[in-house]
Amino acid sequence: MIPIRDTIKSKTVPVVNNTLIGLNIFFYLVQMFQGNDLGRFIFNYGLVPARYTDFDMASYFSFGQQMFSFVSYMFLHGGFWHLLGNIWFLYIFGDNVEDHLGPFRYLAFYLLCGIGSGMFYMLFNFHSNIPIVGASGAIAGVMGAYFMLYPGSKILTLFPVLFIPFFFEIPAFFFLGFWFILQFLNAAGSSAQVSGIAWWAHIGGFIIGAALLNLSHKLPQTGVTQTARQIAEKKKTYRLQVINPSGPIDDPNLYGTIVITPFEAQRGTMKLVNIPWGFQKRLYKISVPPDTKQGNVLRLTGQGKKLRDKSRGDLLLTVEIE
């Protein structure tokens, strides 16, 4: 069950989310250059519960090193597929949560989820001397917040069956709820020291993410958050848009909707519009003039239905500003 995308469009550029993805990739490359020292590197910067419960082991690390590991562990990964899976889930779910919280709150939220999930893991593996690494706990927190914010969203999901891809749109509450139950069953039925996967960190991150989201609603908004939203606001919609026009049987015209941003409405823009028509797809270059208002109609003369006298109606596109 592999998520492909969700149906919720973010209104702002996910600057922090994209930066977190970049940092995870960067530090994975740093790992790859450790060579024979990789084991020591992971032990120093991963999260090792025994470093906090075994006094002899703890004596080798300063207070700052002990605290830093709660942050550094979430930027390291156990391999390429571990990294790819984490950044893919972060890419799908993180932009919408950042859009809701704002960039600064989202960064604090992400780090707190990662730190909290590490502590939650330690409760169930108090004396383990095996390092845990990965952004999974923090990303589980993002998924927990998404679960609370957009339970009715649809997740386009790939189900590969005997190498044949099947795609289904699954409600977010079902997809994420099933994911959470799967983590709990795996945690209850196996040991992280055997499986190599910190299931309890995933569970803790999800719960902490949902709880922190509710707490954030009780905190007052600041001018800094609002300013950051305005700076990160998306200036443009996709240049290429697919429109499926329709119209009454007795009407020679076709009707559709073209989506632009307030910035594009004010300044004007050019769009490529792909119109599926039977087995053909017609591509048009459309100019949206400056100072366009919500509900304005753009007319493409002669691009509607073909009439019996071989003339054509028009294609009328209503402007929607989002």
UniProtKB/TrEMBL annotation:
Span of domain Peptidase S54 rhomboid: 65-213
Query: GO terms for CC?
Result: membrane
GO MF terms listed in the record are: serine-type endopeptidase activity; unfolded protein binding
Q: Where does this one sit in the cell?
A: Membrane
Topology within the bilayer? Multi-pass membrane protein
User: Pfam families, per this entry?
Assistant: Rhomboid (PF01694)
The record lists the membrane-crossing segments as: 12-30, 70-94, 106-124, 130-149, 161-185, 197-215
Q: Which UniProt keywords apply?
A: Hydrolase, Membrane, Protease, Transmembrane, Transmembrane helix
The Gene Ontology biological process terms listed for this entry are: protein folding; proteolysis
Q: Which InterPro entries match?
A: HSP40/DnaJ_pept-bd, Peptidase_S54_rhomboid_dom, Rhomboid-like_sf, Rhomboid_protease_S54
- Can you name this protein? Rhomboid family intramembrane serine protease
